[in-house]
Amino acid sequence: MPFILQERVSLKSFNTFGVEAQARWFAQVAGAADLQRLLDDSRVRDLPRLILGGGSNVLFAGDFNGLVVRICPRGIDDLGQIDGARLIRVAAGEPWAELVEHLVRSGRPGLENLALIPGLTGAAPIQNIGAYGLEVAERLHAVHAWDPVSGMVQDIPADQCDLGYRDSRFKRQIRAATVLGPQTLPVVLAVTLRLPQPWRPVTGYAELERELAARACPRPAAADIFDVVCSLRRRKLPDPAQLGNAGSFFKNPVVSREQHASLIERFPSIVSYPLAGGRYKIGAAWMIEACELRGVTRARAGVYEGQALVLVNRGGSTGADILDLACEVQERVQMRFGIQLEPEVQIIGDSGRLLSS
After folding, report:
1. Active site annotation includes 269
2. What is the pLDDT along the chain (357 residues), one digit of tens a residue?
3. Choosing from 70, 166, 194, 294, which is the catalytic residue?
4. 46 is in which domain, residue-wise?
5. Choosing from 94, 112, 211, 344, which is the catalytic residue?
6. Which end of the chain has the lower number of beta carbons within 10 A, N or C?
7. Together in a domain, 31 and 60
8. pTM of the predicted model, to two decimals?
C-alpha cells in the first residue's frame, strides 16, 4: 500500500460508533519507514497525533485538528516452539477477530476465549483486552514498537509492559499526555503471542461454563470454546455494522473490601466478583440498570437494551451526543452508589485533548 498523506478526511468509516468527524490530516502507514517520513514532514510534524487501529475503542467528540495515523501492516508468522509454548508474531494491522479464528481453525489454540473482539491486533496489548476468563496478558510474549525518539523498533518483553485490568504502560503513556503529541509516544507495529503447549481449556468463567454444560460439552476442544464465545458475544452485543458502538463503554470498577461491605449492606443484590488482595470488581452494568438507564435514548444516543455497559449510536448521533449520555450515566451512578465509572473507550477532543480516560 503506497504511503499517502491526505488532508480533510472523514473518519466516519474509521470508528465503530459511526459518528461523523473529520481529521485535518490522515495517513495510513505500513511500518517504521512511513512513521519516520511523517515525523520528518513539516506539514504535520508539530501537530497533535492520534494512532488509530480499528477504531473500535475510540469516540470522537468532534473533528480532530491534527494528524490521524492508521496502522495497517499485515502478516502472521509462526516462530515455532520454545519452553512449552508456540510463538506467533502478528503484525499490528491484523484484525483481531480474524486472527483468533485463523489460529483456532489451523490447530493453534490459546486465544479462543478472546473470539470476536473487534479491533486490530496492535491495540490488544495497549488495552490488555480480555473476555470470558482470559486476558492478553496471559498470552503475550513481547511487543514490537517504533520509538519516535530513537527511530528504532524496540522489542519490549511482556513483563515490561505493565499489563493490568484493561491497562498497560502504553495506555498510561497516552493518558499522561494531556495532548496527543507526536514526539515521544511509541507505536505498536507487531506483537508476539505465546500459545501454551500442551493446550488446556480455560472454562472457569461462569457464563461460559453454563453454556458449555447446556451444550453437553464437558471436555471442550478449542473450537467448542470459540463457537460458544462467539454465540455469547453475538447474543449480548450489537453488531457495529448494524448499530454503532464500541463494545463496553465503561470499566467494571474495583473497590476495597471495606467499600464492598458497605455496598452489600446497602444493596444486597449488587453484582460483584472477588479479586486478589481482598478487592472486589463491581458489575457496572448492574449499577446502570439499577439507575433505570438501560434502553434510554438521548438525541439518538442510547444505552443498549441487551447490555447496559454498551452505548450505541441509534443513527445520526454525534460524538458529543454520546459523550453527554456517558456523562449522565456517570453522574447517576455516582449519586446512587458513590462510585465513579471510568470509560474504557478513548474519548478524543478537537485539538487532541483526552477528554476522559
Report:
1. no
2. 557 899 999 999 999 999 999 999 999 999 999 999 988 899 998 888 888 988 999 999 999 999 999 989 999 999 999 988 999 999 999 999 999 999 999 999 999 999 999 999 999 999 999 999 999 999 999 999 999 888 899 999 999 999 998 889 988 887 766 455 555 678 999 999 999 999 999 998 889 999 999 999 999 999 999 999 999 999 988 999 899 999 999 999 999 999 999 999 999 999 998 988 999 999 999 999 999 999 999 999 999 999 999 999 999 999 999 999 999 999 999 999 999 999 989 898 754 444 443
3. 166
4. 5-71
5. 344
6. N
7. yes
8. 0.86
User: Does residue 324 lie in a domain region?
Assistant: yes
Name the catalytic one among 248, 294, 317, 356: 248
Is 166 in the active site? yes
Distance CA 259, CA 217 (A): 39
Count the domains in the chain: 3
Q: Is 138 a catalytic residue?
A: no
* Statement to judge: residues 124 and 12 lie in one domain: no
